[in-house]
User: What shape does this take?
Amino acid sequence: MDKNLKSMKKNILIIGLFLLLGATAWGQQEAMYTHYMFNTLDMNPAYAGSRGAMSIVGLRRNQWVGFEGAPITQGINMNTPIFGDHMAVGLSASSDAIGPIKTTSMVVSLAYRMKINDDAKLSFGINGGFNSLNTQFSRLDLNTPVDEVFATSAQSDWSPNFGFGMYYTTSKWYAGISAPRILENTYKVNTSSVGLLQASRHYYMIGGAILDISPVVKYRPSVFFKVVEGAPAQLDLTNMFIFHDLFWVGSMIRTGDGAGAMAGFNINQDLQLGYAYDWSYSFGRVSNHNGSHEIMLRYELRYGSQEKIKSPRYF
Assistant: This one.
């Protein structure tokens, strides 16, 4: 790697960390996924049980590939109906690393589902768990000495949290609103009296539909709206086309940040694989990078009365 380019990347990372540490709160802190429509439980506990089977989703996202210290996010979640069709439980685990900062979370969700009519259900969900933050600023290779924060040894801090959500679904469309982490906890990032980070509460709204274009093509639009104090509201708009209920292709645009594309297919009735690529044009103004790559794998296990469900479920 060119020495000047490497030095520039380090300086950009250091400047970003100074901005991070100099604020009492920072903006979009939650993990971001282009496959949000496959990962709804992570943002809304009321989604648990909505697929009528035990559903397990794993994701890995490598963001801004080629940029030193770029974010790497990975997560896994599972959810299943219990005690019939009215109750459901879910479990989510994720980690998000950017440079010397790593956040980890573990969350348990519980949902209650009400039947509105033969085609609609309304769910209420709550969750609880913990978030941890680990910093290792002493591992940074700095060009010149800077603030004492960057000389500290590894530091970890954690705190409990809880959230809630509502989710309404029919066979043709769905909508949900949630705040999955209510508490705005404060984390220490070093052993001195400076360097405190305060989490910001996030509010999410999600929605989508499935429309028949032809006997073999379906159109699945979806939206994801994020609101958090200290950062602009952000909207993800996705257009997906499903062919023969077997494979799909789509495009995505994220307001103020970037755009991308996705594709995937049903390996069999219970297993789905998806890939997404997106490019952050806002970050691209600061440094060159090779975009972001994301892999999604979903497996569903049906048992008991769930085995009777044969028609495809799109959300």
